[in-house]
Here is the input.
Amino acid sequence: MRCLTDGEIQAVVDDEATIESRDHVETCQQCRERVSERRPHMTTLFAVVHAEAVPSAIEARLRHAMTSSSDVRGSTVLRASTRSQWRRVGWVSALATAAAIAVFVGVILPRLGAPMTLSASEILGRSLQTLSAGSGVELLEYEVAVDGMSHSPVVIRQLIDRDNPNRYRIASYGPDGVIRTAISQDPLAQRRSQLIHVDGVNYIVRVGAINNPVLSLPQMAQALVETSIGIMQAKSDQQLTIEDGPSGRRYIIEVPPVTRQNPAATLDIFSARAVINGQDFHIQEFEATGALLKQPFSVSVKLRSQTQATNISTGFEIEPGPGDVVLDGEPGDDPVMELLTTILRAVGPAK
Amino acid sequence: MNSLKTTEVVGPVSIDPQAEVLRLFSEHGTALFRFCRSTLGNATDAEDVTQETFLKLLRHLQAGGDRRNLKSWLFTVAANGCRDRARVRLRWLPWRAELDHRTVEPVDDTPDLHRARQALRALAPRDRLLLSLRASGLSYKEMAAAAGIREQSIGRLLARAVDRWKRRLV
Here is the structure.
């Protein structure tokens, strides 16, 4: 069995793991150490929460609330009423209030790092612009976890020509760093390649003389993220947290979970969280749960690196390594059929 | 790190709701307050949300509501209450625990515990919520119900929250 993901290790620590995960930890030194490393952290967190002092009067307040008026709604009515001192000083207080607000807005808020000019929605809007902006060739590396996906989380390395979105190469790597799948397409060289890793062997299907490039996968993924961000932007209950760390400012925007769902929507977001770089508004992390075509999903994407590529002469090819099986196929309209027909043609004579 | 017992109350509906609320308060009140305190970082708000939660429980029982797994019910209502409370604060200013000087630290905090608490308070709301739920002894299933997240995602999200908390400890 493969080594466990962080989530599975956490489940072992929390006594929530499957039998397979627990058995694996028994036999794998590395995973056992990861469990041992994580355990004291949970003990500390338990200690933090359990050290919170509980007010002795809380039960008395509850008893009073239950036995007093039947119209009681919430606890705020139960506090000892402290009449505001502001009323006594009449109109003078209005000037004082205005001055206090002016000082608060003009002096205190900026020092606290509050968003003086940007709302959560505006930050999301700027991030949306960065998704489609840019030129030249970019190399992006993401960590992606999708519920139900085997070998999750995976690392995705994506090379894309911003000036020609149909020119790209995407490869996915398992937790062990081994390539799992890849697809590349280069309309300029009229080539398309696909790779599948099966039983320790890479099978590469190469097709030349492609006429019409198929829809760009990065563009499809980008459209999905853009739609998700757009839905986040439209929600009224976004929560914005600003973090000022050593690497600069980050905006964390969360859409709290909702139970109300829109069965008619093609894509519906139930909860989402985006971490956005405060300098360039690039999305660093994105997590969402929702339903796509009525199928529930949960996805988490974390940007590891984003660099401008300089040497692109062979970058869009999938280069075979030693031991890789390379099959040359015929071009078609559908890459899946291209892959299947090429493999079947290779298998046919072998039978 | 076992979960707290699940409170299964499937007895006759004729039980006095007020007595039942007080019994459940003695069983879960402290844990619920600590959860709210840890999630909100503010004792006054935590006290309000705890009390509101038990008053809602009273109305729930008086209306003949479902009595199965009331512990999970309590934490779900409290988690929603915490979110609403945090949202009200955000209308004025994005509340940040590290800037909130009104919070009073427990007097017997060790330096390590103090650092751990500061790191927890500096986390994003969802991370704080998940870690507080787990530290309150809820199972993944109960956490999923309270946080409105799929049960299968809890381990992964919790692991990430712990990692982010660890990074803030350094």
